[in-house]
Structure formats: structure tokens, C-alpha cells
Amino acid sequence: MAEQFDVAVIGAGAAGMMCASVAGQRGLRVVLVDHASKLAEKIRISGGGRCNFTNVNAGPANYLSGNPHFCKSALSRYTAQDFISLVKSYRIAYHEKHKGQLFCDNSAEQIIAMLQAECAKGRVQWRMPCKVAGVDQTATGFVLHTDGGEIAAKSVVVATGGLSIPKIGATDFAFRLAKKFGLEVVEPRPGLVPLTFHGPDWTPFVPLAGVALEVDVETGSRKGKGARYGHFREDLLFTHRGLSGPAILQISSFWTPGTPISLNLLPELDLAAELIEHKSSTKKHLHNLLAQWMPARLADGLISAAGLQPDARLADLPDARLRALGAAANAWSIVPDGSEGYRKAEVTLGGVATRELSQQSMMAQKVHGLYFIGEAVDVTGWLGGYNFQWAWASGVAAGQAL
Ligand code: FDA
């Protein structure tokens, strides 16, 4: 005989715990099922262990989705301020780090403990670790076939996230289940991920691993149906395999394989104009001049990529070569050959298509009682606390609608 619940939430991560606690506190009998042996690993490792739990500026413009309007309803009904109030009520100390990003002063564990306490308030029952082999619709709702027996529930909320970081338990469960119930899934791909480069154009930059600087980065186009365009000013980091740092993680979500990204390594300086203007008034070598404005190793890389000598004197170089060097620094266009993939991606773009879901409740339009929330849905935030804010907001939207 299957255990009976009003709601079965599959996936006890950020969205799942939020949803279960809200539904439980409304008096529903809720069971939370997760296959992992350790609770909420992604929250634990997030923000370098301090969990960038929201962003005070979070709004629909900070999300990528097939339908940019879809996230508006949930985000406006459960805002960053609402989550901050919850955090404050648990006396969790936090601070703003950069561009509205809020982090715990101490540990991400505090956010996990807070969500557990909220679930306890709602008398949520836990089944963990517990594998869900499948879900079937019945006359009265759904039945979950698990390795701990059958669980019957009037409604099922799928909160199993995306494919990022498989080694801590990410699976394609949500996408498989959506397809089984005839729902469209937007092809998933890694987002917020380092980009990789190789080949002759990249050779001068191989020795630069570890070099970091603030840059402007852009990719894509604003024109055409479904066009994606991204532009950020953030820190760039050269790695052994390519480029990373917040600038690249942000732009990776907008990047289409085979197309270039464009970097301005000196966003506050027109390098060609500066070099040409100072041609007659400086005796400095090219390298020493460039190293005033950028890390010395990067200056070496750029000079070498432009086919120049580091000890060349400015006065000896034709303006055309200085303009080419300026363009290499101010408008460096380079085509990544790929990304580090789900192994390193912080999020999964794509997911259950928004047109399949109600933006008020997150319930599937075609399957009464079946809900999808969090990263499993085709709504993906920028880097900076936006993804957790979507997990909280979509979890609350479903939790209140169940
Ligand atoms: P989440 O992945 O949190 O939870 C899914 C749950 O489902 C997991 O507990 C998993 O075990 C379970 N599950 C999966 N398959 C299952 C199955 N078949 N059966 C049962 N259970 C199953 N975002 C942000 O806003 N600020 C930040 O600081 C960071 N930092 C960060 C660092 C790193 C390294 C990563 C990888 C990601 C981030 N993120 C982030 C992104 C953020 O962690 C992510 O968007 C949310 O955790 C998504 O919440 P969900 O609840 O949707 O999925």
C-alpha cells in the first residue's frame, strides 16, 4: 500500500526545500524526496561556501529564457527583500559583496539549516537518500516508484535542477519526466562556464594563466528573432585552458558555439590614440609603456600576438601597427572552441519550456497537478545570486498554488 501525501516534491535543493516548506506551512501533507545522501550540496558549495543567496537588484532583465516575461510573476511576488527578511529572521549575518550580491558572513550551511527549519515548521516528511525510478499518473493524482516503496500524492513538484556538476548528483530527471508527459524541453546546455581556446591564435596567451583584469566583454547580436546579446564589465581570468572569471562566466550564457566573443582589455583607454599621441614624447619601450595599463605578462602576449618586439620604440613604429595593437587590446575578437561543460558549469540553460507551464503556479498546462520549479525550468539567471532568487521565487509560487 503506497504512502499517501498531498504533495511529493522531488529534489531537496534550493527550490524543492522552499516549495515544500511553503506548502507544508499551509497545512498540506508534504513529502520531500532526494536521491543524494548529503543534503543540498549545491547550496553548500555555492558562493565559495558562503552562498550568494540573492541579489538586491534581481529582476526579469537578469534572466535568459525562451520567454523573458515568464519569470516576472514569480519574481514580483517573492522578491529578494522577502528572502532577506527570512534570512534576517534567522539572524544569519550577511554582507553585500559586489553589484548587489548578498553572501552569508559565515557559511552556506546556515541557509541549508534555515530551509530545514522552515520545512520542519511545515511538518515536511523526508525520504533521503531515496531514488525515484519513475512517476505515473493515477485516477487520484500520481504515484512515485522509489527504491523505498511507492509514494502516492495528489500533486508532484519536480525540483531536480539541471545537469551542472554531475559528481554531486545532478541528473536529467526533470527533462526525462517532462518528455514522458509530453512537455517540450528546450535543449539544455552549460551556462556560467569557463570557455576553452586552442590553436595558433591562442598560443601567445598560453603562458598567461593566472593573469586577471577588469574588461568589457560582449557577444551575440540584438537583431533577429530569438537573437541573444550579452555585454558585461567584470573581471577576466586567464586559465591553463582558456578564459574564466566573472566576465567569461556571464558571457558564456549568451555565447553560441562557433561565434566570437569580443573583449576590451582596456575599457577606460583608447590604446591606439594614446600610443600615437605619445609617439614623439616618450622614449619608453613598447612593453614598458603597455605594462603601465595592464599586467606585464598580458602586455607581452599582446605584443607577441601583434608580431612586434617588446623592446621596440614607439617612435619607430608606423601608426598603422599601433592602430592594430590598439584594436587587439580594445576590440579583441576571438572564437572559443568550446566550454568546460557541465563539469564546471554553474547552471544549465534551457530546460522545461516555459510555454508548457503556468507562470502563476508553475503547473504544467497539460498535466494537472504536475509542477516544475527552479533550474529545471527554462529560466536561467546571470551570475550573482540570481539563480537562487529564481529557485526561491518559483518554489514559493508553486508552494502557494498547490
Ligand atoms: P538544485 O540543483 O539545487 O537541487 C536539485 C536537487 O535534486 C538536488 O538535491 C539533487 O540531489 C536532487 N536530484 C537530482 N536528480 C534527482 C533524482 N533523479 N531523484 C531525486 N533527487 C534528484 N546560484 C546563486 O544564485 N548563487 C551562488 O552563489 C551560486 N553558486 C553556485 C556555485 C556552483 C559551484 C554551482 C554548481 C552553482 C551555483 N549556483 C549559484 C547555482 C545554484 O546552485 C542553482 O541554480 C540552484 O541550486 C538551483 O536550485 P534547484 O533547487 O533548482 O536545483
TrEMBL record:
Keywords: FAD, Flavoprotein. Its cofactor is FAD. Pfam families: HI0933_like, HI0933_like_1st. It comes from the Bacteria. Residues 6-400 form the RsdA/BaiN/AoA(So)-like Rossmann fold-like domain. The keyword Flavoprotein applies. InterPro entries: BaiN-like, BaiN-like_dom_sf, FAD/NAD-bd_sf, RsdA/BaiN/AoA(So)-like_dom, RsdA/BaiN/AoA(So)_Rossmann. Residues 189-347 form the RsdA/BaiN/AoA(So)-like insert domain. NCBIfam families: aminoacetone oxidase family FAD-binding enzyme. This is NAD(P)/FAD-dependent oxidoreductase. It comes from Zemynaea arenosa.
